Amino acid sequence: VHQCLGQNLARAELDIAMRTLFERLPNLRLAVPAQEIPHKPGDTIQGMLELPVAW
């Protein structure tokens, strides 16, 4: 199974970014139900196509 050498750094960066974002925008919330968030299909690289939020 392939694992990226930078995956731990990417996770740490995302953790810091999300904590900072929620500290600065405490009312940040999803603008749609979680089930309605479109995802990018794929076997190796997956993710959200968009993330509608409101604050």
Low-confidence stretches: none
Quaternary state reads single chain
**In whole angstroms, how far apart are the ends?**
39 Å
Kindly give the count of domains.
1
pLDDT averaged over residues: 92
Radius of gyration over C-alpha positions, nearest whole angstrom? 14 Å
Residue share in β-strands = 5-15%
Q: What order do the SSEs take from the amino end to the carboxyl end, as H and E?
A: HEEEE
- Tally of individual helices: 1
Overall body shape: flat
**Which percent range fits the helix content?**
25-40%
Please give the order of strands in the largest beta sheet: 1-4
**Pairing-aware structural class of the strands and helices?**
alpha+beta
Beta-strand segment tally: 4
Profile the largest sheet.
Answer: 2 strands, antiparallel
Précis, in short:
The protein is an alpha+beta fold.
Structure description:
With 55 residues, this protein is an alpha+beta fold. It has one domain (7-54). Helices cover 33% and strands 15% of the residues. The chain has 1 helix and 4 strands. It has one helix at residues 7-24, and strands at residues 29-30, 39-40, 47-48, 53-54. The strands form 2 sheets. It has a two-stranded antiparallel sheet. The longest helix is centred in the N-terminal third of the chain and has 18 residues, at 7-24. The protein is flat and about 40 Å long. The N and C termini lie far apart (39 Å).
